[in-house]
Amino acid sequence: MPNILLINPNSSRATTDMMVRIAQEHAPAGYTVVGATAANGPSMIINEVELAAAATEVEATWRSTQVPHAGVIISAFGDPGVMQVREASRPIPVVGICEASMLEASEGGRRFGVATVTPDLVAAIDAKAHALGLGALYTGVQLTPGEPRGLAADAGALEEALSDAVRACLKDGAQAVIIGGGPLGQAAVHLAQRFDVPIIAPISAAMRRLSACIAGGLAAPAGTAKRA
């Protein structure tokens, strides 16, 4: 049975387990999602210093895995290490949850925003949207109040705070809203059921994109390293 490797750049094994459960629900028939957790770093990446450090950790995690795999998902919203692993692993496809969710959210020319908990990553999220050539459709980020890790530890409070951020994105003119963060994966799944507009759960979006890559060889997104 073929495997899909999901790398959690955050160092929380419980978060990895949650991510794997979500990814498995959208995996191609017959594929098993196997999680790998970063050995070092914070339990949740919340700033650009941690994001930059995570790129090296992601590559090290990928190189140390002993599990044969047909594709890779990198499950932190800043996509740390995506380009390095994509270049080193080709022709095996590698997908980041930020790029996948932005590409899905913008399908058909939809305007899209991001609801998230990490104010210190807004510049990185903005830069990703522009690097993918989606700046004209991107309405920006709306944030939850409070300290990100503390909020993420309270599932009920997290979901309610993100729902307010989603509404703020819609007021900005977004026609689809991404829940921006791998550790926010379960909240994203729940919120998708609460709104009439598309709420993009990034882990699910990444698995859908990876499945398409495995089935038909989608090209790498603009602004990223291309596979041979």
Question: What does this protein structure show overall?
Answer:
- By secondary structure, the chain is α/β, with parallel strands linked by helices.
- The protein is built from 9 helices and 8 strands.
- The chain has helices at 13-25, 48-64, 82-89, 97-105, 122-131, 148-152, 155-171, 185-191, 202-216; strands at 3-8, 32-37, 72-74, 94-96, 112-116, 138-143, 176-179, 199-200.
- The protein has a 4-stranded parallel β-sheet with strand order 2-1-3-4, with helices on both faces. Strands 6-5-7-8 form a 4-stranded parallel β-sheet, sandwiched between helices.
- It starts with a strand and ends in a 12-residue tail after the last helix.
Question: Uncertain spans, ≥5 residues at pLDDT below 50?
Answer: 222-228
**Mean of pLDDT:** 93
Largest sheet properties: 4 strands, parallel
CATH-defined topology of the largest domain:
Rossmann fold
In terms of structural class, how would the helical and strand content be classed? alpha/beta
> CATH first level of the largest domain: which class?
Alpha Beta
Task: Output the helix-strand order.
Answer: EHEHEHEHEHEHHEHEH
Strand content: 15-25%
Tell me roughly what share of residues is in helical segments. Answer: 40-55%
Family: Belongs to the HyuE racemase family.
Protein name: Hydantoin racemase
GO molecular function, one term: amino-acid racemase activity
Organism: Ralstonia insidiosa
